[in-house]
Amino acid sequence: MQIKAAFDDAAFINLIKPLHLSVIKKIINKTIEGLLMLSSTITTLTVLLIVLFLFKEGLSVFKESPLEGENVIVLSNQNKITHLSSIDIKKIFDQETTNWKLIGGANDSILLFTINDLSNYFSEEELGPNFEFLPQKMDSLIEANPGMIAIFSKKYLDKNHKSKIASIDNISPKSFLLGKEWFPTASPAVQLGVLPLILGTLYVSIVAILIALPIGLATAIYIAEVANPRIRAIYKPVIELLAGIPSVVYGFFGLIVIVPLIQKIFDLPVGETGLAGAIILAIMALPTIITVTEDALRNTPRSMKEASLALGATQWQTIYKVVIPYSASGISAAAILGIGRAIGETMAVLMVTGNAAVMPHSLLEPLRTIPATIAAELGEAPANGIHYKALFGLGCILFIITMFINIWVEAISKKRIKH
Amino acid sequence: MYKIESKNVNLHYGTFHALKGINMSIEKNTVTALIGPSGCGKSTFLRLFNRMNDLIDGVKIEGECLIDGKDIYSKSIKIDELRKRVGMVFQKPNPFPKTIFENVAYGLRVNGITHKNFIEERVEICLKQAALWDEVKDKLKKSAMALSGGQQQRLCIARALAIEPSVLLMDEPASALDPISTAKIEELIYQLKELYTIIIVTHNMQQAGRVSDSTAFFYLGELVEFDSTKKIFTNPSEVRTQNYITGRFG
Ligand SMILES: Nc1ncnc2c1ncn2[C@@H]1O[C@H](COP(=O)(O)OP(=O)(O)OP(=O)(O)O)[C@@H](O)[C@H]1O
Ligand SMILES: [Mg+2]
Questions:
Q1: How far apart are CA A229 and CA A220, in angstroms?
Q2: Distance from CA of B57 to the nearest CA of A (A)
Q3: Fold of domain A71-169
Q4: Ranges of chain B with pLDDT below 70
Q5: C-alpha torsion sign, points B93, B99, B105, B111
């Protein structure tokens, strides 16, 4: 009886022990699994939230009026024109547009009126000691002059005004994307055309990658396939070191070496040009391109290379007929990463491109990129103002460009793998 | 004159002495089997004749390797020209990730041949020689990677034949294959003998017996015995050979 009890006990312990352990193991496994899932979920959510925030802020620029401050633009009721776009306003106040017919009105010359012109029309007595007659006087003046356009603060508007307030078009996506003028602090109406910035970014990045890709590919091929191990042991770390240099240092180098060089070679008034930016970006993208390409080249199985050589192919034939096609997707990845680096790069480009927000006609002129614009202007743009929102809009555009490039190159590399 | 000769060849991988004074003479249009335990130097010896060992850092080769009486290690020999005359089939099928057609055409293209009809003709002939034509004639434009292992190996043989080498080196060409594919390849070797001089490395004694005219037994980097296959398998002069082929060691 006793023996049986002892036996039962032992059996019970034997049963319970592994059970115990396996339960603990299961809990640990579940916990680790949960933690991993949590961290990846948080990461994904964070990325999504950032994108969401970017677009929320960026898109809100289209709800804004380009008119500065609390101003209104007032016209006579005899004037056919009822609404104006920001570029109309700019041209009128810059006196580029001097006749209403140019923007669809009657043939009548445009007469500008701002609060500073007050003394030309009225004496101080007429306006009263505390300017209490000012709104009413201005109102009748404007109403009497069909060619007049007046801009002033809302508080000077007569409560029973007879003249009409011109409606001002909000910033439209079309004028934002295709506008050629970027004057985000212009008065009386800001100009938010980002086309020069988009083109500046694309020009500089594309030229940079056109410079960097052949050089990077050649270097990677040399290191991976040609150089003897001793040379490789020196070159590789040096190139990897290049990737670690802060971008300000590249900018500084560009400013001191490349900018004067370009100025001298092309005999330009200033050396700060798109070309200087492209060269600096090319140098900065090189380490990424070389390292990624070299890894890809080295991933070509030895048996593939041997098969080619054994058929009498030379080393170069083997490289371009077997090794490069085999690593095509890796090389594409290198190109994406290089372009990504070039498009997003801020500091160095800011330092060497001259930062003129004008439509770029050649690479030998100063130009300005999207990231450089954001970096240079965000500090001085009042939070939640139209300028601030426009900069977020630029951020959205940059994001879309990079995403588009990613998808595009991905598609190319997929196509090539199939062959 | 012998087709292939090695005269007192020594090969070192760094400090490791992998081939020790090998002398061997091979007649034209024969099949020679190289046998011996793993690591004895069969592949190393085979790779001497298309200078594949040159790709490895720290290899030192002494002695003479002759093909058609010419020293293939002399300075006047261009390696890629040599490799066009000495084809090789590797142990693991290694087709290029290209189409079946392009795999066979590769050797022609790197030779500068661009004539479309000629290339098409050669591809068909070689695929027929390699007993693969019937299986792939409708999918020449499909990727070679989609073929079975045995088909891939026959494709590699066709690829090697395309440039009409006079010597064919085969390093365990059937070791990764099933019995049916193996039989096909053996049959193929038997037929190719009329046009090529073949050296084949194999671990399969029956295979060596079936396909080869002469057999060379290697042991620890030495050529222990080299004689007609019949003699080696029925009445070897060396005890070590006897022990190996009867499976007593190795
Ligand atoms: N690249 C190399 N570097 C250094 N030693 C090598 C190299 N290749 C082969 N060896 C050595 O040389 C010897 C012969 O190798 P080899 O590949 O010729 O043998 P094998 O007879 O073909 O063997 P297996 O039947 O396993 O293929 C082995 O001891 C091997 O370790
Ligand atoms: Mg071997």
A1: 14
A2: 9
A3: D-Maltodextrin-Binding Protein; domain 2 (3.40.190)
A4: 249-250
A5: negative
Q: Which residues, 6 or more positions from B138, have their beta carbon under 8 angstroms from its beta carbon? A: none
Cα of B48 vs centre of ligand 1, distance in Å, is: 13
- Asked whether A281 and B79 are in contact (CB, 8 A), the reply is no
Contacts from B233-238 at CB under 8 Å and sequence distance 24+?
B233/B205, B233/B208, B233/B209
To 10 degrees, what angle do helices A274-298 and A195-221 make? 40
- Interface touch B156/A307, C-beta < 8 Å: yes
How many Cβ atoms sit within 10 Å of the Cβ of residue A230? Answer: 8
Q: What is the pLDDT of residues A256-313, one digit of tens each?
A: 999 999 999 999 998 899 999 999 999 999 998 999 899 999 989 999 999 999 999 9
**Ligand 1 atom closest to residue B41's alpha carbon, by position in its atom list:** 18
Instruction: Ligand 1, residue B172: give the atom nearest the CA.
Output: 27
Q: Which helix (H) or strand (E) holds A217?
A: helix A195-221
Kind of pairing between the strands at B70-71 and B59-67: antiparallel
Residue A105 scores a pLDDT above 60: yes
- Mean local confidence (pLDDT), A46-63: 93
B239 lines ligand 1 (CB under 6 A): no
CB of A301 less than 8 A from some CB of B: yes
| Domains of chain B, each with CATH number or no CATH | 4-245 (3.40.50.300)
Burial class (CB in 10 A: 0-12, 13-18, 19+), B90: buried
Is the pLDDT score of A10 beyond 80?
Answer: no
Q: Which of A225, A231, A303, A311 best tests the B interface by mutation, with the highest count of B CBs <10 A? A: A311
Burial A365-385 (b: 16+ CB within 10 A, else e): bbbbbbbbbbeebeeebeeee
- Cα(A17)–Cα(B197) distance, rounded to whole angstroms? 69
As for the ipTM of the complex, it is: 0.92
Q: Which two tokens stand for residue A20?
A: 């115990």
- Please tell me if the CB atom of residue B57 comes closer than 6 angstroms to any atom of ligand 1: no
CATH assignment of A195-418? Answer: 1.10.3720.10
Annotated domain spans of chain A: 2-63, 71-169, 195-418
Residue A419 has pLDDT above 50, yes or no: no
How confident is the model at residue A413, as a pLDDT? Answer: 64
Chains A, B: CB contacts within 8 A come to 66
Interchain CB distance below 8 Å, B159 and A309: no
